[in-house]
UniProtKB/TrEMBL annotation:
Family from the record: Belongs to the triosephosphate isomerase family.
MF terms (GO), sorted A to Z: triose-phosphate isomerase activity
Key word Phosphoprotein present: no
Pathway: Carbohydrate degradation; glycolysis; D-glyceraldehyde 3-phosphate from glycerone phosphate: step 1/1; Carbohydrate biosynthesis; gluconeogenesis
Organism: Magnusiomyces paraingens
Protein name: Triosephosphate isomerase
Classification via PROSITE patterns: TIM_1 (PS00171), TIM_2 (PS51440)
Lineage: Eukaryota, Fungi, Dikarya, Ascomycota, Saccharomycotina
GO biological process, alphabetically ordered: gluconeogenesis; glyceraldehyde-3-phosphate biosynthetic process; glycerol catabolic process; glycolytic process
Length: 248
Protein backbone atom coordinates (compact mmCIF):
# COMPACT_ATOMS: atom_id res chain seq x y z
CA UNK A 1 0.00 0.00 0.00
CA UNK A 2 1.52 3.31 -1.00
CA UNK A 3 0.36 6.27 0.96
CA UNK A 4 0.82 9.70 -0.63
CA UNK A 5 3.33 11.77 1.33
CA UNK A 6 1.52 14.62 3.08
CA UNK A 7 2.88 17.89 4.42
CA UNK A 8 0.60 20.20 6.37
CA UNK A 9 1.45 23.76 7.38
CA UNK A 10 -0.37 24.95 10.49
CA UNK A 11 0.12 28.72 10.72
CA UNK A 12 -1.78 28.82 14.05
CA UNK A 13 -2.79 32.37 15.13
CA UNK A 14 0.17 33.91 13.33
CA UNK A 15 0.74 36.27 10.47
CA UNK A 16 -1.02 38.93 8.49
CA UNK A 17 -2.35 39.23 4.97
CA UNK A 18 1.12 40.30 3.84
CA UNK A 19 2.67 37.27 5.51
CA UNK A 20 0.18 34.87 3.94
CA UNK A 21 0.82 36.52 0.56
CA UNK A 22 4.54 35.92 0.84
CA UNK A 23 4.04 32.27 1.85
CA UNK A 24 1.62 31.66 -1.03
CA UNK A 25 3.98 33.38 -3.47
CA UNK A 26 6.81 31.18 -2.21
CA UNK A 27 4.75 28.04 -2.77
CA UNK A 28 3.67 29.22 -6.23
CA UNK A 29 7.28 29.78 -7.24
CA UNK A 30 8.57 26.68 -5.49
CA UNK A 31 8.37 23.95 -8.21
CA UNK A 32 6.60 21.62 -5.85
CA UNK A 33 6.90 17.86 -6.30
CA UNK A 34 3.80 16.41 -7.97
CA UNK A 35 3.66 13.42 -5.63
CA UNK A 36 3.42 15.32 -2.33
CA UNK A 37 0.07 16.48 -0.99
CA UNK A 38 0.48 19.88 0.66
CA UNK A 39 -2.16 21.49 2.84
CA UNK A 40 -1.71 24.94 4.36
CA UNK A 41 -3.80 26.25 7.19
CA UNK A 42 -3.83 30.03 7.55
CA UNK A 43 -6.08 31.72 10.11
CA UNK A 44 -9.74 32.01 9.03
CA UNK A 45 -9.59 35.57 7.62
CA UNK A 46 -7.00 34.50 5.03
CA UNK A 47 -8.44 31.18 3.85
CA UNK A 48 -10.17 32.61 0.81
CA UNK A 49 -7.27 34.80 -0.21
CA UNK A 50 -4.92 31.84 -0.01
CA UNK A 51 -7.27 29.60 -1.98
CA UNK A 52 -7.77 32.20 -4.70
CA UNK A 53 -4.06 32.81 -5.17
CA UNK A 54 -2.46 29.38 -4.91
CA UNK A 55 -1.54 28.07 -8.34
CA UNK A 56 -0.20 24.57 -7.61
CA UNK A 57 -2.89 21.90 -7.94
CA UNK A 58 -1.20 19.85 -5.21
CA UNK A 59 -1.79 22.48 -2.52
CA UNK A 60 -5.07 22.57 -0.64
CA UNK A 61 -6.36 24.66 2.26
CA UNK A 62 -7.33 23.63 5.78
CA UNK A 63 -9.23 25.57 8.39
CA UNK A 64 -7.83 25.40 11.93
CA UNK A 65 -11.16 24.52 13.54
CA UNK A 66 -14.82 23.90 12.75
CA UNK A 67 -18.02 23.43 14.76
CA UNK A 68 -20.12 20.30 15.21
CA UNK A 69 -23.37 21.85 13.99
CA UNK A 70 -24.65 23.70 10.96
CA UNK A 71 -25.13 27.44 10.56
CA UNK A 72 -26.99 29.02 13.44
CA UNK A 73 -26.77 31.04 16.62
CA UNK A 74 -23.23 30.04 17.62
CA UNK A 75 -21.38 33.33 18.06
CA UNK A 76 -17.70 33.07 17.27
CA UNK A 77 -17.86 29.67 15.62
CA UNK A 78 -17.27 28.91 11.94
CA UNK A 79 -19.30 26.28 10.12
CA UNK A 80 -18.14 23.49 7.86
CA UNK A 81 -20.36 24.92 5.11
CA UNK A 82 -18.61 28.31 5.41
CA UNK A 83 -15.18 26.71 5.34
CA UNK A 84 -16.10 24.80 2.19
CA UNK A 85 -17.70 27.89 0.69
CA UNK A 86 -14.32 29.66 0.59
CA UNK A 87 -12.64 26.69 -1.04
CA UNK A 88 -11.09 24.86 1.90
CA UNK A 89 -11.18 21.08 1.74
CA UNK A 90 -9.61 20.19 5.08
CA UNK A 91 -9.90 21.09 8.75
CA UNK A 92 -7.43 20.51 11.60
CA UNK A 93 -9.22 19.08 14.65
CA UNK A 94 -7.96 17.95 18.04
CA UNK A 95 -4.82 20.07 18.04
CA UNK A 96 -3.24 19.98 21.50
CA UNK A 97 -3.50 23.76 21.80
CA UNK A 98 -7.26 23.42 21.52
CA UNK A 99 -7.33 20.40 23.81
CA UNK A 100 -5.31 22.16 26.51
CA UNK A 101 -5.94 25.91 26.17
CA UNK A 102 -9.55 25.73 24.94
CA UNK A 103 -10.31 22.64 27.04
CA UNK A 104 -11.81 20.68 24.16
CA UNK A 105 -12.73 17.15 25.20
CA UNK A 106 -12.12 13.93 23.27
CA UNK A 107 -15.88 13.72 22.88
CA UNK A 108 -16.29 17.21 21.41
CA UNK A 109 -13.40 16.63 19.02
CA UNK A 110 -15.01 13.36 17.92
CA UNK A 111 -18.33 15.14 17.35
CA UNK A 112 -16.63 17.83 15.30
CA UNK A 113 -14.73 15.20 13.32
CA UNK A 114 -17.89 13.29 12.53
CA UNK A 115 -19.77 16.43 11.55
CA UNK A 116 -16.96 17.66 9.29
CA UNK A 117 -16.63 14.30 7.54
CA UNK A 118 -20.39 13.86 7.14
CA UNK A 119 -20.53 17.28 5.53
CA UNK A 120 -17.66 16.86 3.13
CA UNK A 121 -14.54 18.22 4.82
CA UNK A 122 -11.46 16.05 5.23
CA UNK A 123 -9.92 16.03 8.71
CA UNK A 124 -6.37 16.25 10.04
CA UNK A 125 -6.95 14.67 13.44
CA UNK A 126 -4.24 15.55 15.96
CA UNK A 127 -3.41 13.32 18.89
CA UNK A 128 -0.50 13.13 21.30
CA UNK A 129 0.63 12.98 24.89
CA UNK A 130 1.96 15.67 27.22
CA UNK A 131 5.41 15.44 28.78
CA UNK A 132 3.91 14.35 32.08
CA UNK A 133 1.97 11.56 30.37
CA UNK A 134 5.07 10.46 28.50
CA UNK A 135 7.06 10.34 31.72
CA UNK A 136 4.36 8.12 33.19
CA UNK A 137 4.66 5.87 30.13
CA UNK A 138 1.14 6.74 29.03
CA UNK A 139 1.87 7.73 25.43
CA UNK A 140 -0.15 4.96 23.86
CA UNK A 141 -2.90 5.01 26.44
CA UNK A 142 -3.47 8.68 25.63
CA UNK A 143 -3.20 8.31 21.85
CA UNK A 144 -5.51 5.31 21.84
CA UNK A 145 -8.05 7.06 24.05
CA UNK A 146 -8.07 10.08 21.73
CA UNK A 147 -8.46 7.80 18.71
CA UNK A 148 -11.13 5.65 20.33
CA UNK A 149 -13.38 8.66 20.88
CA UNK A 150 -13.42 9.17 17.11
CA UNK A 151 -13.57 5.45 16.30
CA UNK A 152 -16.78 5.26 18.34
CA UNK A 153 -18.43 7.75 15.98
CA UNK A 154 -16.71 7.33 12.62
CA UNK A 155 -16.40 4.09 10.69
CA UNK A 156 -15.00 5.35 7.37
CA UNK A 157 -11.47 6.69 7.93
CA UNK A 158 -10.62 7.35 4.28
CA UNK A 159 -10.84 11.15 4.70
CA UNK A 160 -8.92 11.31 7.99
CA UNK A 161 -5.21 11.93 8.28
CA UNK A 162 -3.89 11.34 11.80
CA UNK A 163 -1.19 13.68 13.10
CA UNK A 164 0.81 12.31 16.01
CA UNK A 165 2.04 15.40 17.80
CA UNK A 166 3.65 14.83 21.19
CA UNK A 167 2.82 18.00 23.12
CA UNK A 168 6.35 18.22 24.53
CA UNK A 169 7.73 18.46 20.99
CA UNK A 170 5.45 21.23 19.75
CA UNK A 171 7.19 24.56 19.41
CA UNK A 172 10.04 23.47 21.67
CA UNK A 173 12.72 22.72 19.10
CA UNK A 174 12.84 19.25 20.63
CA UNK A 175 11.49 16.90 17.96
CA UNK A 176 10.89 13.22 18.71
CA UNK A 177 13.69 11.05 17.37
CA UNK A 178 12.82 9.28 14.10
CA UNK A 179 13.00 5.91 15.90
CA UNK A 180 10.69 7.03 18.71
CA UNK A 181 8.23 8.55 16.25
CA UNK A 182 8.24 5.42 14.08
CA UNK A 183 7.67 3.28 17.14
CA UNK A 184 4.60 5.28 18.21
CA UNK A 185 3.29 5.51 14.62
CA UNK A 186 3.48 1.76 14.12
CA UNK A 187 1.60 1.21 17.38
CA UNK A 188 -1.03 3.76 16.39
CA UNK A 189 -1.49 1.92 13.11
CA UNK A 190 -1.72 -1.41 14.93
CA UNK A 191 -4.39 0.03 17.20
CA UNK A 192 -6.32 1.34 14.20
CA UNK A 193 -6.02 -2.08 12.53
CA UNK A 194 -7.53 -3.70 15.56
CA UNK A 195 -10.41 -1.23 15.72
CA UNK A 196 -11.24 -0.29 12.13
CA UNK A 197 -9.68 -3.20 10.27
CA UNK A 198 -6.30 -3.83 8.73
CA UNK A 199 -7.28 -2.61 5.28
CA UNK A 200 -8.45 0.80 6.41
CA UNK A 201 -5.55 1.18 8.86
CA UNK A 202 -3.04 0.53 6.08
CA UNK A 203 -4.49 3.42 4.12
CA UNK A 204 -4.53 6.01 6.91
CA UNK A 205 -1.71 8.51 6.71
CA UNK A 206 -0.02 9.14 10.04
CA UNK A 207 1.90 12.41 10.15
CA UNK A 208 4.51 13.36 12.69
CA UNK A 209 4.29 16.87 14.15
CA UNK A 210 6.46 18.69 16.66
CA UNK A 211 9.48 20.87 15.81
CA UNK A 212 9.87 19.54 12.27
CA UNK A 213 12.12 21.89 10.31
CA UNK A 214 14.05 22.14 7.06
CA UNK A 215 17.06 20.43 8.61
CA UNK A 216 15.58 17.50 10.52
CA UNK A 217 12.82 16.52 8.05
CA UNK A 218 15.04 14.18 6.04
CA UNK A 219 16.07 12.30 9.18
CA UNK A 220 12.60 10.71 9.24
CA UNK A 221 13.04 9.31 5.72
CA UNK A 222 12.81 5.55 5.47
CA UNK A 223 10.49 5.21 8.48
CA UNK A 224 7.66 3.13 7.08
CA UNK A 225 4.83 4.49 9.23
CA UNK A 226 5.74 8.18 8.97
CA UNK A 227 3.65 9.41 6.06
CA UNK A 228 4.41 13.11 6.31
CA UNK A 229 4.48 16.02 8.71
CA UNK A 230 2.28 18.60 10.33
CA UNK A 231 4.50 21.64 10.60
CA UNK A 232 3.88 24.69 12.79
CA UNK A 233 6.61 27.31 13.14
CA UNK A 234 8.63 26.24 10.11
CA UNK A 235 5.58 26.45 7.84
CA UNK A 236 5.84 30.25 8.15
CA UNK A 237 9.39 30.25 6.84
CA UNK A 238 11.04 29.54 3.47
CA UNK A 239 12.31 26.20 4.89
CA UNK A 240 8.74 24.89 4.55
CA UNK A 241 9.71 24.20 0.92
CA UNK A 242 12.63 22.05 2.08
CA UNK A 243 10.24 20.00 4.22
CA UNK A 244 7.85 19.54 1.27
CA UNK A 245 10.80 18.34 -0.80
CA UNK A 246 12.39 16.26 1.95
CA UNK A 247 11.32 12.89 0.53
CA UNK A 248 12.64 13.61 -2.98
P1 LIG B 1 5.76 23.15 15.59
O1 LIG B 1 4.18 22.91 15.70
O2 LIG B 1 6.19 22.61 14.24
O3 LIG B 1 5.93 24.63 15.69
O4 LIG B 1 6.40 22.40 16.69
C1 LIG B 1 3.58 21.74 15.20
C2 LIG B 1 2.09 21.82 15.37
O5 LIG B 1 1.63 22.33 16.40
O6 LIG B 1 1.33 21.38 14.48
Amino acid sequence: MTRTFFVGGNFKMNGSLDKVKSIVEGLNAGSLPSDVEVVISPPFPYLKWAKDHLTASTVEIAAQNSFDRGDGAFTGEVSVAQIKDVGSTWVILGHSERRTILKESDEFIADKTKYALDNGLKVILCIGETLEERQKDETLTVCNRQLDAVIAKVSDWSDIVVAYEPVWAIGTGLAATPDDAQDVHSKIRAHLAEKIGEKQAEGVRILYGGSVNGKNATTFNGKPDIDGYLVGGASLKPEFLDIIKSRA
